[in-house]
Amino acid sequence: MNVSASAGNEAEAVPMAPETKSGTVLDRIIDARRAAIAHRKKSVPETALRFGVKHALPLRDFAGALTRDSINVIAELKKASPSRGLIRADFDPVALAKCLEAAGAAALSVLTEEENFQGELKYMKDARAVVGLPVLRKDFIVDPWQVWEARATNADSFLLIVAGLGDALLAELLALGRELGMEPLVEVHTREELTRALAVGVRIIGVNNRNLKTLEVRVETSLELIADIPEECIAVCESGLRTHNDLARMRAAGFDAFLIGEHLMAQPDPGAALRILLGS
Hints:
Blueprint: H1 9-12, E1 19-20, E2 23-24, H2 25-43, H3 46-54, H4 62-65, E3 72-77, E4 80-81, E5 85-86, H5 93-103, E6 107-111, H6 121-129, E7 135-138, H7 144-152, E8 157-161, H8 167-179, E9 185-188, H9 191-199, E10 204-208, H10 220-225, E11 234-238, H11 244-253, E12 257-260, H12 262-265, H13 270-278
Parallel strand pairs: 3-6, 3-12, 6-7, 7-8, 8-9, 9-10, 10-11, 11-12
Antiparallel strand pairs: 1-2, 4-5
Helix pairs in contact: 3-7, 5-6, 5-13
């Protein structure tokens, strides 16, 4: 299945400056997220989300999908990013989800942050409805309300970014996810963040090779941290992976799964690109 990318993607990309008046890119996004959540809570109270959770579709096993004896790719549906700008103009989450499942994705990740990634919660819900794969809500989760919202819209897991959370809130969001049956993917970039994640009992650890404070990408970050991830944890390598050899190298180093978005979304046929990554 061919899902064509816009030929003008490169020209349309407008990278965001790493630093802003309010701090780093991550600081600015989180500040905006908190403001958006405060507004949304007024129209959708947590009690309504709790009711929605009771009627959500059954959970799919996200952790299990990442521990198959194969190259497990979490294929990410991402329309735009702060570092690149618009990645895919003809963004169709339903068509993309179908073609990535057919190509061998182990799970899907869908961006739901609106301002910087041009995501929507509807994209995640629509994508999950047409596949049998577990689906991760990719967003900047900073409030328990968002976890309830994720499950109420059928997410099977969600992202937590250690760099944007204090220890108490990280532990609270992790516990709520487990209460709802969702084991979150917890993202780290430094050894100090990894130590904090392990201290609260995280099970799925994603090492992001992109520093969200500067947007710099170093694949060496994963190689530097993998030895400190306990064997009982599921290790996910994120960002900067572009070839089958990249995945084979990281798998040999000890990673169980790989989150890949921008590389796939920038290709004319994301499914064909995923097959090449998997060595099919």
